[in-house]
């Protein structure tokens, strides 16, 4: 029996991705400056509407009499349950909250193909009910298992076969399980995939081909590239020109393993009825002080989706978030300050996050107790020291009007001396290499990393 051996690495891929990232103004699809108009055209081609409704008007959803959990009658999609969390320490930190439980693994997939020797990526104009502007640029396929197994009895998911049926002329560029928002999802993972094909790909009106550089340019526009596209693009195996770092790769992994080991956490789902300190009325589940988020419900009309109308719960945050990397050069090499962060819904204790990740309205007084480290430094950075800034929507399929201001800043005064516990300097290339592993880099940090893999930010 003859076995076929394959090279362990595609030695041409990094170069082809790099070339695609340099093509920033035009490609096989619309010019970059025309993409916003194309999205507006697709928005006008369908009817989209999202209306807040009371819980009593949810169709197919109900609060379960024994647990209080908000669930769909099919027992699929997701449930809103309670989370009981404890982080060890002196004293330990404890809290309870509502959380989304969705154990099924979805597919977030981007199809790639060369046109005139340049890699392009098939992007979709997709409506999500929680997005402030509804329609944004999304992956080729963005579907939960319930969606693509047709629990909703709607239309089939377009282009799904490229990601579920490998075959001749199809090559996997990236394929990794990644977490979603650990503060609002319990143990949620999605399969992040990039698949390249040599086949002729049928065209659809709500899809278009763009280069990596075009997408990078569009990442400078507020609320245009959705969260699912950003997380997939962060996994692209782009090469970074680095030969040295503050920590060697083995030192970095030892530090990260130590961070995972030093935290004693107990996170478990409990009935929503057990969540104290939260109130429920006919319109929302919320805290009396208005902090963090609330659970609401909406009615949706979406002419371009597999199902044209439905109702569902959504989580609505208390304000706009701030997610920021502080960057600093050591020996001329750019580094990012990361935080090994505990979140209640993470599958494995901690993941690497940006330097700052919070909703500042939850910490209203500068210098107040509990205010996140480096938040004031980020907010006070002079505009000329901001290397990247844009407002991006979070997961529009589960969160309503959830936006964060994403930044990469290089303060004029370097950070010197010992860092707070849980913080570490690593290079962009080291962070990118960790996305080859599931549950190492959280979804907010992956958004900022996508700005590097697409060439939206360069040094």
Task: Walk me through the structure.
- With 459 residues, this protein is α+β, with helices and mostly antiparallel strands.
- The chain has a domain at 249-266 and 318-453: EvaA sugar 2,3-dehydratase subunit (Nucleoside Triphosphate Pyrophosphohydrolase), CATH 3.90.79.40.
- It has 10 helices and 25 strands.
- The strands form 5 sheets. Strands 6, 7, 8, 9, 10, 12 and 13 form a 7-stranded mixed beta sheet that branches. Strands 19, 20, 21, 22, 23, 24 and 25 form a 7-stranded mixed beta sheet that branches.
- The protein is globular.
- The mean pLDDT is 94.
- It holds the Pfam family Hexose_dehydrat.
Attribute tags:
17% helix, 459 residues, EvaA-like_sf, Nucleoside Triphosphate Pyrophosphohydrolase, NDP-hexose 2,3-dehydratase family protein, EvaA-like, seven-stranded mixed β-sheet, alpha+beta
Task: Provide the fold topology.
Elements: H1 13-22, H2 35-44, E1 48-53, E2 61-63, E3 70-72, E4 79-87, E5 93-101, E6 106-115, E7 118-127, E8 135-138, E9 141-143, H3 145-148, H4 161-164, E10 170-179, E11 185-186, E12 189-197, E13 207-211, H5 212-218, H6 227-234, H7 249-262, E14 265-270, E15 279-280, E16 285-286, E17 293-302, E18 309-317, E19 321-330, E20 333-342, E21 350-353, E22 356-358, H8 375-379, E23 386-393, E24 403-409, E25 423-426, H9 428-434, H10 443-453
Parallel strand pairs: 5-11, 6-12, 19-24
Antiparallel strand pairs: 1-17, 2-3, 3-4, 4-5, 4-14, 6-7, 6-9, 7-8, 7-13, 10-12, 15-16, 17-18, 19-20, 19-22, 20-21, 20-25, 23-24
Helix pairs in contact: 1-5, 6-10
Region (Disordered): 1-29
Protein name: NDP-hexose 2,3-dehydratase family protein
InterPro entries: EvaA-like, EvaA-like_sf
